[in-house]
Write a structure and sequence with these properties.
By secondary structure, the protein is of the alpha/beta class. The protein is 31% helix and 24% strand. The protein has a single domain, classed as P-loop containing nucleotide triphosphate hydrolases (Rossmann fold, 3-Layer(aba) Sandwich), CATH 3.40.50.300. Helix 7 packs across helix 8. The termini are far apart.
Length: 284
């Protein structure tokens, strides 16, 4: 479903050196699979999602979704951000139906589907409420319904539960697991939480510190449904979590290609620091 090949992303700095966010990312996600990406802050996890979504042009490499090269945002790909970003003057139902209106689709045709999604996340009776009348967790449930209203083939989720309290975050993670088991939407989920990754994912891509590279992809071979509580799979969850922690803390260097020079720049000077990572600056 998703194929990422030799993806590199470098951001030019106006006053300082260019920042190499991603280097040589190779990743494939099968249809219906749930893949989590974890790594230290600043390793390029969110950048990777934006490249898959077509919100950023890649410096080099390419991304394809369902066999089509990604060059711009697609209706086949939904995205959920860290904040729900609901329009405060629109009701819950109207917020869920917003993408339908943006795409110019017939709103009444999708109203029943919107109600089904709200029922699925336990918010059917709140369809006429305004966002300020909802808790943070409820707002994120509405944002999830909005992302699913177009029936996307792929759903990208950028730390959607990071701003919530621990208990609400755990509840929504379990809810998302149930929804994924029901809908079988292909999901790429960015998180800092090893627990969330183990609970939700079929596989976990562990990224190195910037520039982000795939250190290892870990298969989570634990039967579903999973939970954070004590159960028959607690030992397996613990072992997988420990493996991911060790990979995140690893300082072992990975072999990598030469740093990528942004294509839009002409003259560059390359300074190589002691750690072997090149920093690119425009000659003035």
């Amino acid at each position: 479903m998703i194929h990422v090949e030799n993806l590199c992303q470098t951001f030019n700095g106006r006053r300082g050196p260019a920042v190499e966010a991603l280097r040589g990312i190779d990743l494939s996600v099968d249809e219906g699979e749930f893949v989590a990406a974890i790594g230290r802050s600043g390793c390029g996890k969110s950048t990777l999602l934006r490249l898959i979504a077509g919100l950023l042009p890649a410096t080099t490499g390419h991304v394809s979704v369902a066999g089509d090269r990604v060059r711009r945002p697609s209706r086949e790909v939904g995205m959920m951000f860290q904040r729900p970003a609901l329009l405060p003057w629109r009701t819950v139902l109207d917020n869920v139906l917003l993408p339908v209106e943006i795409f110019g689709w017939h709103r009444p045709t999708h109203r029943d589907h919107a109600h089904e999604l709200l029922e699925m996340v336990g918010l059917r009776e709140f369809d006429r409420r305004l966002p300020h009348e909802l808790s943070g967790g409820m707002q994120q449930r509405v944002a999830l319904c909005r992302a699913l209203i177009t029936r996307p083939k792929v759903l990208l989720m950028d730390e959607p539960f990071s701003a919530l309290d621990a208990l609400t975050r755990a509840e929504l993670a379990v809810e998302l697991q149930r929804i994924h088991m029901e809908l079988r939407t292909t999901i790429v989920f960015v998180t800092h939480s090893v627990q969330e990754a183990v609970l939700l994912a079929d596989r976990v891509a562990v990224l190195t510190a910037r520039p982000g590279r795939v250190r290892e992809i870990v298969k989570v071979d634990i039967p579903r449904p999973r939970s954070f509580g004590l159960n028959s799979h607690t030992d397996d969850v613990g072992l997988c979590s420990a493996q991911l922690h060790d990979l995140l803390l690893s300082t072992e260097d990975l072999p990598s290609p030469a740093p990528v020079v942004p294509l839009q720049s002409r003259e560059f000077r390359v300074d190589t620091r002691a750690d072997g990572v090149g920093a690119h600056r425009r000659d003035m």
